[in-house]
Design a protein that fits this description.
globular, 63% helix, 6 helices, mainly alpha
Length: 78
């Protein structure tokens, strides 16, 4: 399980949501969401729209979710 999948699972549980709840609200199939949560697919490699939808549903800041520290995103654009 990678960092992203741990964050997704923990946050979903904090909010009392099921995987089905997240998938339905994001407009994707449950299996697609499960791949993110099981670490088989990275959310940061998906489309921006889908990533933002899931971050909104789980009330996650996309910057904090995608980058481990404040300076990591700067390294990627410089």
């Amino acid at each position: 399980m990678n960092r992203e999948s741990r964050i997704l699972k923990a946050r979903r549980k904090e909010l009392g949501l099921s995987q089905t709840d997240v998938a339905l609200n994001a407009g994707i199939q449950i299996q697609q969401y499960q791949k993110f949560e099981y670490g088989q697919r990275k959310l940061s490699n998906s489309s921006m729209v889908l990533g933002l939808r899931i971050c909104a549903i789980l009330e996650l800041d996309p910057y904090e979710f995608a980058f481990e520290s404040d300076t990591d995103w700067m390294k990627k654009i410089i």
